[in-house]
Amino acid sequence: MSNEKPFPEPTPVSAPFWNALRESKIKIQYSPSSDEFVFYPRLLAPRTLADDLEWREISGLGTLYTYTVADRPTAPPWSDALPQMLAVVQWDEGPRFSTELVDVGDLELTVGMRVEPVFCDYPDRDITLLRYRPRAL
Questions:
Q1: How many domains is the chain built from?
Q2: Is residue 40 domain-shared with residue 83, that is, in the same domain?
Q3: Which is one Pfam family of this protein (predicted)?
Q4: Residue 122 falls within a domain, yes or no?
Q5: Does residue 46 sit in the same domain as residue 68?
Q6: Cβ(104)–Cβ(133) under 8 Å?
Q7: Side-chain-side CA neighbours of residue 34 (13 Å)
Q8: pTM of this prediction?
Q9: Per-residue confidence of the chain (137 residues) as pLDDT tens digits?
Q10: Separation between Cα atoms, residue 84 and residue 113, nearest integer Å
Q11: What is the CATH number of the domain that holds 87?
Q12: Same structural domain for residues 43 and 67?
């Protein structure tokens, strides 16, 4: 069994999201039929099932909705990355995003705090991951 960390594998549906991250931008889908942003990437709009989803750039700014500090590895590949600060961020545009917090100590975390995106490049994997840190004032 390998202890190498797994990385996301973009699909045809999710590729615009991953491509935007490589450019330090965040693009998610917007549904005109429901007048709301949508995340995770999909083919049809939730609730309306309309085929009207379009990709739009968002700021990526948000609020820390919830978090947990994992003092034990969540899986063997993360045994050298402790503590792991796992979080859900509510984007200002609406949807929630599961992520990891960086550049912050666990005692500094507060539900409701403002956070900003951090683009973490992995050139050897040709992917950029989206993480979050407390927003600089």
A1: 2
A2: no
A3: OB_ChsH2_C
A4: yes
A5: no
A6: yes
A7: 18
A8: 0.91
A9: 557 888 999 999 999 999 999 999 999 999 999 999 999 999 999 989 999 999 999 999 999 999 999 888 888 888 888 889 999 999 999 999 999 999 998 888 999 999 999 999 999 999 999 999 999 87
A10: 18
A11: 2.40.50
A12: no
> Looking at this protein, which amino acid is placed at residue 55?
W
**What is the domain extent for residue 73?**
60-137
For residues 62 and 69, give the distance between their C-alpha atoms in angstroms, rounded to a whole number: 19
Q: Dig out the tokens for 63 from the structure.
A: 């609020």
